Amino acid sequence: MRVRDMMFMSLFAAIIGVLAIFPPIPVPVIPVPVVAQTLGIMLAGGILGAKRAGLSVLLFVFLIAVGVPLLTGGRGGLGVLVGPTGGYILSWPIAAWIIGYLTEKNIHSLTYWKLVLITTFGGVIIVNIIGVTYLSILSNLPWGPTAVSALVFLPGDVLKALIASAVIIKINQVYPLIDRGKRVTY
């Protein structure tokens, strides 16, 4: 891995941490707040590509696990990962990788609306499926009602996907980090 790649991965881990400055918006029906950090997950995937985004967010989750207070509200530590928000946080590296992978595969035909679908799939649907499943198991609640309660996140998450897609398109036009010249294979 090149130093340049490590620098960008560290940069995006820091960006996700900086997004913790925005205060969490508590949701009355579920113990998981609305946070801005998922915007950083979407940005990492769409700008860095699958491998670098996944590793960048994995670094971020590792830092949380060892106690660095990088989450909204100054939280960190293993207790956060085994608490109600743990499934959402643990889904972030997967979501970043999926967004990066789909962006790489479509880099030659990437449009704003295609990118909105990609960030919504990876950053909203995948994160919520994993987060709701984890919360359902942890809380010993049926999956269906837990999923319905998580629908309150949908408007904010879709708004983040719209914003992230606009930023990703512009950055990929001006300073593309995903190599357009080579075919991405896995």
UniProtKB/TrEMBL annotation:
It is a multi-pass membrane protein. InterPro entries: BioY. Keywords: Cell membrane, Membrane, Transmembrane, Transmembrane helix, Transport. The chain crosses the membrane at residues 30-48, 55-73, 85-103, 115-138, 158-178. It is found in: Cell membrane. Belongs to the BioY family. This is Biotin transporter. The lineage of its organism: Bacteria, Bacillati, Bacillota, Bacilli, Bacillales.
